[in-house]
Amino acid sequence: MFHDCERLSISISATLENRFDGYLVKLKKFAPFIARITIGLAFIACGYNSALFGPELPFDALFGSFAFLAQGAFVVLGAAMIFGIFTRITGLIGLVFFAYGIYMYGFYMVTYLNYLAEFIVLILIGGHKFHVSDEKPIWWKIPQTLDYLANHYGEFAFLILRVGFGVGLIYAAVYAKILHNQLALAVVNNFNLVEVFGLTPEFIVFGAASVEILLGIFFILGIEVRFNAVVIIIFLTLSLLYFGESVWPHIILIGIPMAFFCYGYDK
C-alpha cells in the first residue's frame, strides 16, 4: 500500500493532509471496521423497514408471504456483520440477496451498487479488526476459497468499494435527477428552492445531478478522496435536516464516505 503522503500532486487539500498525515495514517486501520458497521446498520434498517436497500423495493413485492422471514434474516445478518460473526459468509449471503434484486429489478440495481461493493469488501477483508469470530470452524471449503481471495485480492477491496460507490452515485443522479426528475422537481417546488437560489427548478435539479456525478467521478478516479468524503457527508446531513428525508436509506451513503476518510488513498 502506498503511504498516505504519496497522493495525487494535484490534490487541493494536500497541504492539510500532509500536515495531519501522522494522525490520518492512524485512522486507516479503522476503515474496514467502519465499512462493516455501515453495512450491518444498513441491513438492520432494511429489515426494520421491510425493504431491500431502498423504500421503493418492499419485501412484500420481493418475497411475498415470506417477507416477515426476510425481515428477520436481514436483522440477524446485520447484527452478525456489526459484531464480525462469520463476516465473509454474511458477505456471500448479501451477494445472493443482491442477485435476487437484479433478477427482480434488472439494471435498476446499479443504483445500489454500493451494497454490492460492500459485500465484496466483507468477503475480501472479513472481520479484520474488532471481530468476534471468523469462518474457519464451518464449511471448510468455503473458508479456504475465501482465504485465497483475501490473500490475492484483498488489497483491491477499497478500490472496489470506491468504484462501486462512485458508479452508484452517478447512476442514481442520472436516473432520479435527469431521466426521471419529476420527484426532484416536486421537491424543489415544495420547498421553494427557486426563491432561495433564484434559478429555475430544472436548472437546480440539473445542478444537483452534476455535482453528484462529479463527486462520483472523483471517487472512481481516486481524486480528493478525503475532501469528497467530507463534502458528501456534509451535504447529505444538510439534506436530511432540511428536507426531513428518511434517514435509513442514507446510512450507507454516509458510512462509506466515513470509511473513505479514514482509509485515504490506495494504489
Furnish the topology, listing elements before pairings.
Blueprint: H1 14-19, H2 21-27, H3 31-49, H4 59-63, H5 67-83, H6 87-105, H7 113-125, H8 141-153, H9 157-179, H10 182-190, H11 193-197, H12 201-221, H13 225-243, H14 251-263
Helix pairs in contact: 3-5, 3-7, 3-14, 6-7, 7-9, 9-12, 9-14, 10-12, 13-14
Sheet-strand content, in percent, reads under 5%
Number of domains: 1
Give the termini distance in whole angstroms. 6 Å
* Whole-angstrom Rg: 19 Å
DSSP strand tally: 0
Total DSSP helices: 14
User: Spans of 5+ residues with little confidence (pLDDT < 50)?
Assistant: 1-12
Q: State the helical fraction.
A: over 70%
User: What's the average pLDDT?
Assistant: 82
Structural class: mainly alpha
Strand and helix order: HHHHHHHHHHHHHH
Largest sheet: none
Q: Indicate the overall shape.
A: globular
How would you summarize this macromolecular structure in one to three sentences?
This protein is mainly α. The chain has one domain.
Description:
This protein has one domain. It is built from 14 helices and no strands. The protein is 71% helix and 0% strand. With 267 residues, it is mostly helical. The protein starts with 13 loop residues before the first helix and ends with a helix. It is globular, with a radius of gyration of 19 Å.
